[in-house]
Structure formats: C-alpha cells, structure tokens
C-alpha cells in the first residue's frame, strides 16, 4: 500500500478536534525588525492528534526547531494562536507556562543534559526535586526499568554508553507521566544501533503509553518510525507524508534542497 503524500493547504486554520493535543493556527515567529527581520515561521497551521507520532523535517534553518519550541511553550509566537489542550499558550504567563511544561510535557534532546556528578536515578528525579516535589524511589526506578536500565540506577553518566545516557534522558522525560513528549534530534549523537533502540522506546511511548510525540530530526531512517512526517521549508509548511518509509522521506527532502 503506497503512502499518502499531501501538500500544505495555502490558507485556513486546521480543524480543531477533541482528539488534538496541540493546534497551531497561522503561527508566525519573527526575529529582528526592518531590513534585518527574519521570519523563522510564517503562517503555519498544523494540528497534532493525541496518541500519534509526528516527525518534523526540513533543511537547516527551515524553522522546524522553532515550530517545536512554540508548540512546547518554550518560545512565544509573534502572531497567531498556539493551543496546548485547553490552553491558549499566548494567554499564559511565564509561571503558568512553566507549570504546564512541568506537569504535562516531557523533553528529550540530542545533548542528553545529564549532570555528571549524579547517578542515573538522581538525574531522573532531578527535575521533580527542582520543582519542589520528591518522587518515591520506586517511581524513579520503575522509569529506569522501563527503558531497560534497572541494573544501572547507581551508575553515573561517564559509566554509561551514549545510548544508555539517552535512555536515562527518556526516563527523566517520562517519569512525570507527560501527555506530550517533544524530542529534538534525539538520535543525532548516537550510533545506528543505539539510535534504533532509542526510537523503539519513543515509539513505545505512543503505542503503549498513549502519548503524543513530536520529533524534529534530519534523519530519514528516524522519521520512518513516525506515523507521519511534516515538512517545513523557509518557515512554511511544505507538505506531509503519511506512513513514511526512509526512502520516501529522503526523496522528499532532496526535493526541498535538504
């Protein structure tokens, strides 16, 4: 069965459905002013359905990371609407945004962002401790067991491989039971075997955990794990690919000049 390829609609907001976790409506993000103005995003309308895995791809500087940051509440749109569940992100103050991210969002990045002086279980528990909540040790260890590191809870980052460190970072992202997980190049620093293991874990958070996953990647093989790929070029949507294969993604990227 061949995949479905669509091009981005030129206008009109995405239909808001009860099953949507995040909805962007005509979102723009501009930096600078006048002749020096840069439009990182320019009128993007896009919805992410609950319980789905979406990969966001495009050439360097296309706006894909900016799109992720706005959807996650890490950056604010210059204009347009960004909704996370029942919340209009533009209406939330910084404290409310921080609370929403802490309680409902998980983050996984290319750089694992682990503290070298802390053990795996201490790294997983750290965000909650900084937020004033102390997780039971059993909860932290269950999170590490869920990523296959139940026997590495007392190991520090230097005692773990790159793939194991990224799995600690995934456990840290999932320990708070987030609704949505955002991943920015999560396999970029890993070898192909470790990358596949990490992608399988992320895929499982959708299929088994029912979470919504949004991943920025440059790797067609990584994107092939997603339910759909959204392409971005010059700050605008440049189409979608459903049920993607690595070969089809690579071909589409070549057409975008990536």
- The CATH fourth-level homologous superfamily: P-loop containing nucleotide triphosphate hydrolases
Write down the secondary-structure element order.
EEEEHEEHEHHHEHEHEEH
Can you identify the CATH class?
Answer: Alpha Beta
Oligomer: single chain
Give the radius of gyration: 18 Å
- Strand runs, count: 11
The count of helical stretches stands at 8
Overall pLDDT confidence: 91
What is the third-level CATH name, the topology? Rossmann fold
Please list the strands of the largest sheet in the order they lie side by side. 1-11-10-4-9-8-7
Structural class comes to alpha/beta
Roughly what fraction of the amino acids lie in strands? 25-35%
Large-scale geometry: globular
Helix content: 25-40%
Question: Number of domains in the coordinates?
Answer: 1
Straight-line N-to-C gap: 27 Å
Largest sheet: 7 strands, mixed
Report on the architecture of this protein:
There is one protein chain. The protein has a single domain, classed as P-loop containing nucleotide triphosphate hydrolases (Rossmann fold), CATH 3.40.50. The chain contains eight helices and eleven strands. The chain has helices at 64-71, 94-104, 120-130, 137-146, 162-174, 192-207, 220-223, 246-256, and strands at 5-6, 20-31, 38-49, 53-57, 79-84, 87-88, 105-109, 180-184, 212-216, 228-233, 236-242. A seven-stranded mixed β-sheet has the order 1-11-10-4-9-8-7, with helices on both faces. The radius of gyration is 18 Å and the shape is globular. The relative contact order is 0.20.
